[in-house]
Amino acid sequence: MTHSSQQGGSGGYELPVYPFVPPPELARGTQGRYSIVIVGGGLSGLTLACDLSQRGIDSVVLDEDDTIGVRGASSRGICYAQKTLEIFARLGVFERMREKGVTWSVGKTLAGHDVVYTFNLQPASASEQPPFINLQQFYVEWFLVDRIRELGRCDLRWKNKVISVAQTDDEVTATVETPAGRYRLTADWLVDATGVNSGIRQGFGLDPHTSRIADRWCITDVRFKEKFPVERWTWVEAPFNENRAVWQHPMADDVWRLDYQMPSDCDPDYVSRRDVAEDRLRAHLGDIGFELVWVGPYEYRDHLLDEFRHGRVFFIGDAAHVVSPFGARGGNSGVQDADNLGWKLAVVLLKQAPVRLLETYDAERRAAAKENLQVASRTARFLAPQSEGERTLRRAAIDLARNYPFARPLVNTGRMSVANPYPESPAVEGAGWSLPNVPLTLPDGSRSDLVTLARSTGTSFVGILYAPAREEDVSGIASLEANGVPFRFFVCGAGGLGDPSGKLAEALRVAAGGFALIRPDLYLAAVVPNANESNVRRVLSKALCLEAERDKT
Amino acid sequence: MRIDPNIPDPDGFYAALVAAHQGLTEAQSAELNAKLVLLLANQLGDQGTLLDCIEAAVVSSNGSAARSSP
Question: Best residue in B38, B47, B58 to probe A by mutation, most A CBs within 10 Å?
Answer without folding.
Answer: B38
